[in-house]
Structure formats: structure tokens, C-alpha cells
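Hi R.,

Quick one: here's the SLC13A5 protein sequence you asked about.
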Amino acid sequence: MAYRVLRELWAFRTSLVFWLVPLVFCPLPIYYAWTDFYTEAACGYVVIIMAFYWSCEVVPIGVTSLLPVVLLPALGIQSARDVCSNYMTDVTMLFIGGLMLAAAVQRWNLHKRFALRALMLFGTEPKWLMLGFMSVSAFLSMWISNTATTAMMAPVASAMLDEMRQEEEDENGTSNDLELQEVKTDDPSAAKERRRTTPIDDTAASSVEVIVENKEPAVVDEKTRRRRDRRDKGLLLCVCQAANIGGIASLTGTSPNLVCAREMDAQFPDGPGIDFATWFFFGFPTMVLCLVLAWLCLSFMYFGCSLCTGGCSCCQGRGRSRRQDAITKAYAELGPMTFAEGASLFHFVLMVLLWFFRDLRFISLDSGRAAGWTYFFVPGYFTDGAVCITVAFALFFFPSERPRFICCRPSDDERTGPVPALLDWRSFSDRMPWFVPFIFGGGIALAGGVTASGLATWLGDQFSKVDGLPDWVLLLVMCAAVAAFTEFATNSSGPSILLPILARMAERLCINPYYLMVPASISASFSFMLPVATMPNAIIYSYGKLTVLDMMKSGIWLNVLCLLVLMLTTHTLGIAVYGVDTFPSWATCLRDGATSINTTMVTTQMT
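And here's the predicted structure, written out as C-alpha cells:
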């Protein structure tokens, strides 16, 4: 009887959370309704509701992100006009512009060409194949969404696994037919034309699918089956973990990075803020170190001693040659680079160069301004978001073919007239995850409410009571807390709630705000343990080869290693890039008995 009741309650768990959470926590704002602490308590009530709704996915997370528009004005925390202004900011435009460029790259398969070419260079022995998959996934995740990256790379990884299995079955006298094909994921007839295909995330416009026709089942011993299962798990798991890690390298790589940039501007308007170049100089080396350690960790867990030796016999000789031939054939089918691919690559490189050389703060001119091409514009007017939208706008009129106009027309082409642009609105909207800007804007709106209500100041005061702890211990605890929280909620929700609090805590403890806020944002990407943590994890889990326990066993080690790397780079690169060893003049030290301080922090706290 009790089991039946529990099973019934579990079936309606989302409805229970939807109604019970607001009811259970409603005494919080009611109790403080006629006190000076009301706005803080009311904002805490909103934070609790959104945290539960985000974590349990009571409604789509993009819809949950719209709740601040209703709750903050209703509880008297902020006006609707102020709340809504957070949903379309300069940082949001930077994010949307990046998605436009990513859509153009995906439309013309430039990312697929790069991925296959890189895999040709790395080889097909499992440990090097894993490194190849991780390197490609991490690089692509720097520029396009980690969901799209995983949706593209996971079928390629599955193709290699099926090819390895075919080689082993051939040795046992069985045979399979394997073929790599590109299909449209939204084509309903595709499923009828194949015996079995790997699952593909429906957010990608097209991908690589693996078609295997089993002619005769193979009989394998238990030892071979366990070894094959470990190999399959490792080569699939490495894709989503690398996609999660890759996003930390660039400012546009993942939403927590952009939330950090936004909060630095909002909390410290007189500060230098965060731009693409400064984030890249800190984030890229951090990403590379995390990626290398993740590769070593996963290789040891799933390949064991083969990491240091030549590998197992089934992965050598003719097998390696056949897998290499499969990749080479898939790459050859792409043909030579087209005009559209070259144009997409040109716009991609152009945008990165414009980001890097926009504001060279380490080079000061005689006028006192930093070097860079924005020197010719009004100071502070041209941001990374404006650069991104400028290049993205060009995609909608730049031709996807060589123009058929007078001298530009090929001699053997008699046609004339305009040609399609690199990107059109339908292609963009089909690839645009529209819920993501809502999640991003909702996080910023919630952070604005936490600041406006005074909740950030109050919590900062409470956390400042840990003044006796070394700074590095405080940083480690905060980063670990964010990493743990994002295992159950969206990776932008943790930084959105915590960063305003860390900003106030930094001023209370007289710590450089960069020291707490940047690492906390990066640690939000360390979501390795659960399928619900990120979409890449969910995509890989959907293949049915991994259990939750498999992801947790490897994820806990990756969390530990990446947090240690983050601590190392914060105390080395952080000093060089952000000056985290000094308290800046643009922040105010609010420690008891102090006014404004601009001096070197106590060295013993940092060590």
C-alpha cells in the first residue's frame, strides 16, 4: 500500500513541486512583511522557487526563467520595466550574434570538415582517438553550443565504436555492413530506411548517422564483452565531458561566462570589466590543462595500462587501417572546400581578430587610452557585442557562392543575378535554441533582484564572518558549491544567484572581485556527474551504453581535477591577467574599520 502511494506521488512529482514549494516557503515573506528585512526575505522566496523549478524542470526551464517578470514586481522588489530590461542587454546580443555565426558554420558543414580532418591527424587507436574526440569537441564548444557540438560528435564516435566491433566480429567469422551517412534529423522517412541508427539530438539541423546491418550475431566471451563495454563508455563519455570543458575557454563559449561579464559590469561600473581577450587569456590555458587531465583520467579508467602501452591487439594493425579509411572516406565525400565554407571561415576569423584587438589594455598610448581599433571611436561605445552583431549582420548579405556579376562570373557560367546569402532567417531560426536567451536573461534578472533587494549585501555580510579562513580555502569552497549546484540545475542559474553575493563578499573581505567571481563562473561548467546536469550529458546518456553510476564515477574525479586546475590558474594566470593579488581602486573595501583600500592583499591569505 505504501509503495503504491509513493509510486503515485512520484508520478505526479512535478505537479507536487509546482504547488508545494510556493506554499511551504510562503511564510518567509509573510513573516517579515512589516519589517525592514521584507525585500531581502521576499527575494529569497523568489530565489528558492526558481531554484526548485529549475532543478526539477516543473515547466520548461526557459519558461521558468520568465518568472522574475511576474514575481519581482508582485512582491515589490523591482518594477517590471527594470526587470524586463535585463532580458536584452549588450551581453545577450553578444550571445545571439555568436549563435548566428555558429548557425552559418553549421549550415555549410565547416565544423564537420574540421572535425573529420582533426580525427585523421590523431589516428584511430582508442587512446589517441579519445584525445582526438576530446580536442575537437572542446575546440568546437568554444564557438558553438556544447549541445550542437555533442550532437555532431557523438554519432561520429558511435561510428568508430561500430567499426571496432565489426573488426572483432570479422575475426569471429561474422560480418556487418557499416556506412557513414549525413541525414537531416527532422526527416521522418530516414528512420524507415535503416535497420538501426544512433540517437541524435533534435536541436541539430543535420548530423552524421551510423547505419549498421547485422547479418549474423557474434558470440563473444565475458572478458571481451567487458573490455568492449569499457571502451564504448569511455569513447562516448569523453565527448560530452570535453564539450563541457571547452566552453570555459572563450567568453561566448557558455552562458556562465557571459553572466560573469554582465555582473562585473553591473556590480562594478567603474571597473575594467571583462572582454573577450582578457577572458581568453585566462580561460584557454585553464581549459587546456583541464582537458589534458580529463583525457589522462578517462584513458586510465577505461583503457587501463593500454594508455602507456601499445593497446590491445584488436585495436592494432588492419583494424586501425580500416577505421582510418572510414574517416578518410567520410572526409573525401565532403569534396573540396566550397566558397560558402571559405566565406564562413573568413567571418569566423574576422570576428575573433576584432575581439582580440578591440581594446589592448596592456598597451597604453600617449593619450592615456589603450591601443586597439576602438581608439578611433568614442571610448566605451563599441563593445564585444557590437562586434559580434556587425559580423553576424554581414552573414545575411554576404554571398554563399561566387557572385555571378560581370567580371566575377566564371567564364563557363552564363547565369547572372544574385545568389543566396551565407545565412537566412529560416536557417538561423531552425538552429537557434530560443529558450537559451530566456534562461540567460532570467538569470540576469534574478541577479538584479538579489542586488536590488539587498539580499546580496545581507548574505555577503553573513559570509564575511569567515574572515579567518585563508582566501584559497574560501575560493575552493565556493567553486565546489557552484559545481555541485549545477549538477542539478542549469549552469547559468548558480552564477546568477551567487555572483552578486560574491561581489559584496569581496568588498567585505577586501578581496579582488575577480578572485572570487571568475573562478566561480568557470566552475559552473564542471557539470560532469549526472545526465540532467547539461544537454551534452543527456545526449550521451540517451545512447544507452552508460549508467548514472558510470557518469558519477568518472565525473567526481573530473570535478576534483578541474577544481585543482582552477585553483592553480587563479593563483598564477589570475595574477597576470586580472591582478587578483591586489585590491583594485574601482572597488570599495567595506571591512570594519576600513574605508577604501588599494593595496596588496595579505600574502599569507593567498597561500
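The longest strand covers residues 176-184.

Cheers,
M.
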